[in-house]
């Protein structure tokens, strides 16, 4: 089971979560922690930032590593929808209410949101393609079967 867990960088901090993801059962064992006798802790704010970034990486890998379209596609559809709705309101204001679009950066924001939406959905599709190519080319299963019943 532990052969399926790969540690990169400073991911050892999240070993219980990664092992649980691989199907291992996690338990807690009480230990006796002793106070530091010499020196000072070197754990500072810069290390905290790295831990938060590693936590985001682990969360993404555990939740969406085999389905990146769910992350990027959702964000892309949201951005595209907001951009399209904004553009529709601006079109209504221009054609029906005869309001000028000059001196209003909202049109640029609507265009940007629609473009970002298309790019995010495309990135999700490319992520899906890469994920499937990775697993199929190496013959790796997307999930591990713990045991089979007869």
Provide an overview of this structure:
The structure is a single chain. With 150 residues, the protein is mainly α. The chain folds into 2 domains: 1-26 and 45-65, no CATH class; 66-145. It is 59% helix and 0% strand. The chain has helices at 15-21, 45-64, 68-95, 106-138. Helix 3 runs antiparallel to helix 4 (106-138). The longest helix has 33 residues, at 106-138. The chain is flat and about 75 Å long. 8% of the residues are buried.
Q: How much strand content do the residues show?
A: under 5%
Largest sheet: none
N- to C-terminal separation? 21 Å
Give the integer mean of the pLDDT values: 84
- Tally of separate domains: 2
Element-by-element helix/strand order: HHHH
| Low-pLDDT sequence parts | none
What is the number of beta strands? 0
Q: Give the oligomeric state of the chains in this entry, treating copies of one chain as homo and distinct chains as hetero.
A: single chain
SSE class: mainly alpha
Helical coverage, percent range:
55-70%
Rg over CA atoms: 24 Å
- Can you tell me the overall shape? flat
Total helical elements = 4
